Design the sequence.
C-alpha cells in the first residue's frame, strides 16, 4: 500500500522509464536498418497518451500541482511551471511520434529515419522530467503539505485510479513491463 501520493507518482515513473528504455533500444535497432512492429509502436503511443499523460500527468496537474499552488507554491517558474511546460512538450512530441509511426507503417524504408528521430526527444524528455519530479517535486511536496493535505491528495489519487479504471491502469503497467521483449 502506498504511503503518500508522491509514492504513487514515483512508482508510475518506473513504468514510464521502462517504456523509454525500450524506445531507446528500438531507436538503435532502426538506426542499424532493423525493423520494429508498427502495431507495438501504436500501443506505445497509446501508453504515452493514456497512462503517462491522462492518468499520470492528469493526477499531477489536477490534484498535486493545484494543491501546491493553493499552499503558496507559484504555478509559474520553477519547479511547477517548468514541469507543466514539459507535460505540454511531451504531448507535442507524442503527436509527432504517432505521425512518424503511421508514415513508417506505410513505407518502412522511407519512414525509418523519421521514426528514429521522433523517438529521440521523447527518450531525452521523460528521464529528465522524472528526475526533477523525484528529486525536486517530491521533497518539496513533503515540506509544503501537512499530514491532512497528504491524506487528501492520496485519497484523490486513489479516486482517480478507480474512476479511470484500475484494470486499465494495471494493463498498461504490464505492457510497460513486457515491452522490451516485443520491440
Ligand atoms: Fe510530470
Ligand atoms: Fe510524473
Sequence:
Amino acid at each position: 500500500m502506498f504511503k503518500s501520493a508522491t509514492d504513487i507518482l514515483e512508482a508510475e515513473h518506473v513504468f514510464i522509464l521502462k517504456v523509454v528504455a525500450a524506445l531507446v533500444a528500438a531507436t538503435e535497432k532502426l538506426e542499424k536498418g532493423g525493423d520494429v512492429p508498427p502495431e507495438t509502436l501504436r500501443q506505445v503511443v497509446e501508453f504515452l497518451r493514456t497512462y503517462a499523460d491522462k492518468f499520470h500527468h492528469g493526477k499531477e496537474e489536477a490534484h498535486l500541482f493545484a494543491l501546491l499552488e493553493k499552499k503558496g507554491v507559484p504555478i509559474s517558474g520553477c519547479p511547477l511551471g517548468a514541469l507543466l511546460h514539459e507535460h505540454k512538450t511531451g504531448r507535442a512530441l507524442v503527436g509527432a511520434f504517432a505521425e512518424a509511426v503511421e508514415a513508417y507503417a506505410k513505407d518502412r524504408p522511407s519512414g525509418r529515419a523519421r521514426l528514429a528521430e521522433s523517438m529521440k526527444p521523447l527518450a531525452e524528455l521523460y528521464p529528465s522530467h522524472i528526475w526533477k519530479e523525484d528529486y525536486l517535486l517530491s521533497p518539496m511536496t513533503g515540506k509544503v503539505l501537512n499530514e491532512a493535505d497528504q491524506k487528501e491528495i492520496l485519497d484523490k489519487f486513489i479516486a482517480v485510479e478507480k474512476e479511470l479504471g484500475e484494470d486499465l491502469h494495471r494493463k498498461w503497467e504490464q505492457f510497460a513491463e513486457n515491452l522490451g521483449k516485443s520491440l
User: Anything to note?
Assistant: The chain has six helices and no strands.
